[in-house]
Amino acid sequence: MAAAVRRVLRASRAWSAAPRARAAPGAQTLRLIYTTTAVQKRNVAASGPEKYTEAFIKNQIEEFNLGKRHLANMMGEDPETFTQEDIDKAIAYLFPSGLFEKRARPIMKHPTEIFPKQKAIQWGEDHRPFHFLFYTGKQSFYSLMHEIYGKLLDIQKYEDHLRAQSLLAENRKLINLIGSRWLIKEELEEMLVEKLSDHDYSMCIQLLERLVTLPCCGIEEEYVLKFRRELSIQLKKMVIEPLQYDEQGVAFSTGEGKRKTSRATAVIYDNGSGKITVNGVDYLYYFPVMQDREQLMFPFQFLDRLGIHDMICTVSGGGRSSQAGAIRLASARALCSFITENEVEFMRQAGLLTADPRVRERKKPGQEGARRKFTWKKR
Amino acid sequence: MEQAHSMTDEGEAGRRALWIMLRSVKGVICQGPKLDSGYFLHASARAWLSAAVNQDVQIPAEKPRTVFRTSESNPANHAEQHEGQHYSIPLQEVKVVFPHGLPCRFQMQMRTFNESCLMVRKPALELLGYLKNTSFAHPAIRYVIYGEKGTGKTMTLCHAVHYCAKQDWLVLHIPDAHLWVKNCRELMQSSYNKERFDQPLEASTWLKNFKTSNDHFLKEIKTQQTYMWSKRESTEKGRPLGEVVEQGLTRVKNASDAVGVVLKELKKQCPLGSFRLLVAVDGINALWGRTTLRKKDKSAVSPEELTLVHNLRKMVVNDWNGGAIVTTLSQTGSLFKPRSAYLPHELLGKEGFDTLDPFIPIQVSNYSQREFESCYQYYLDRKWLQHERASTEEGRKELLFLSNSNPWQMERISAYL
After folding, report:
1. What is the spatial distance between Cα A149 and Cα A143, in angstroms, rounded to a whole number?
2. Residue from A275, A277, A283, A284 whose CB has the most chain B CBs within 10 Å, to mutate
3. What count of other Cβ atoms lies within 10 Å of the Cβ of residue B54?
4. pTM above 0.80, yes or no
5. Closest CB from A281, A282, A293 relative to B402
6. Listed GO molecular functions (chain A) (predicted)?
7. With 90 as the cut, is the pLDDT of residue A291 above it?
8. ipTM for the complex?
9. Chain B residues within 8 A (CB-CB) of chain A?
10. Adjacent-strand bridge partners of B153
């Protein structure tokens, strides 16, 4: 990372100048692929003085623990080994709710998860603030930057020390960053209990990146990993069934698919000639419309296996188009057993293995349909 | 071509000249679609191979051209080696033999391609084999061609009709019996029999087409009975049948009765042996189904109350000899029958099945691999498939899948490309 990150103290003067919109070359401006709960919660932390006192929170925690033991007793479980999952199951059992919104259902969680984190009162009785950076406005943020920079200087000192003893070449310790990502801005805000701007956030990440490039950063690995989150890889979640063989020794595999309200199962046989039977009827007569037949053709044509496989499928529910879509998904999933990993990845990127999440939207009262409003009359 | 053998012993220059000459000759062959590909291809391949053996020049390997046409235009000579190939009927003949028999999509294709090509298929060959071996002393055998929708039943029937026309039989071809039981604009009470109803328009159209196809027979066959059309008009005994047809055409009111007379005369005279009769009916299940026609008091008309249907039913009964009856079942124009019905007992109903029993069923199914390939090559050759991907291997597989080798479906899809 060639860009020299300005020192925190010097930069604080620069930051008060006109905001620089360009992102420095080393910084990671993460594009949010999927969200965490941090994004959805309101950042109550930075808004105004304490709503809940410390004593109140402590009280709540005691009550929660007691309640947990009572609940365990009620359910006949051991109070010592009663986990949060067991609590959730017990509550769902005792207070069954038909509400669609999951967040509106009854919950029992630890008070730190329910009451948002708040800042304690930051000045004493003589109205003098406790923290030396209080008057910067973002005390925890700047103190964090100080801390990180302090660690960076420590690592450099350690490096110099090793270099003096010429032991640098053997003692390189690097942190493994594969499979994890930096915190996103919302997560950092939640950690610091303070509002940040995009610029502040990018400065923090740049500093961390700079720290990580040093050869001996392994000393502060534990500290740095606090700012990293695990990335779960998409494809590992899909399990590919192995091929099965029937009495004649012909390889076959099954797959299931759904679309809207249709459910389909497909069995694909090897050594075939491209015959497809749907619910006992030839596909030409079950789907007289060419659009549906094109949907059936798509997985085979994509893998260039048009005349090779035979297929027998059953489908129920929905209309003609959704049945065709369900069979398409089922056949794509069944074909996964016949092909290589790379081809499975190609299919996934082509969208053949994703279930279409679109469902019919409900009609709302006061409107004629899901979106259509009644005719507007001026008077 | 013989020059090739003598010149291959000469030097390099001679060989090169030979190669260029062969190439130009082959170019001529490629441009002539009317030439019989079988003979010339064989000859040029022979010369090519013999030249190639002695030459050092690299010739790119030639893909063997699939033979999808045959020059045998007489159905009598069609045999298994012609299976899957198209044979063309000269347009003049088509006008005479098929004034009203071919499906309308085929007629459009005929007009576009400026030629009419029928594919020789196994059911048709089977049927022709039976027809060739008919014994005219025995009662007329009934053949029922059945199959799923769009597999080529009407085309098989037309193939048989063409054969019989070439063999100089009298062809009684009813193009679509369904047209007689639905959408009739004028329904008149019959003068001959008060119970029945006449259909002047349909009858006169049919008589016109019948006249076109069997003109020469109508002059020879004489009536054996006097027919009174009205107080003043009558046809005497011994007059040629053409006069009855004329009477039907001029006096449209009597057209249905004229049709009945023609059918009766033909049936009576056929066993005498002066001519052979082929009764070809397309969509015979219309005769025993239901009609959509209504009487004046809104009650439904049943098929036997129609003169045309009544007479045709008598024709189809096998109490005469000296010919054959070839019929087709058709769900496409049928009334009140589900789409999936294609078997004889489903479409004919109990009454029809009992009347037609015993019959020889001939099943027509979708194209086989060879036939599909032949159809595909034919469309490519006629430049009907214009899409750039249509001529590739993937395009061929796509067409095969989307149409499932169904001829009707294949034709419809190709029309879009």
Report:
1. 10
2. A284
3. 12
4. no
5. A293
6. RNA binding; structural constituent of ribosome
7. yes
8. 0.74
9. 148, 339-340, 394, 397-398, 400-404, 406, 409, 413
10. none
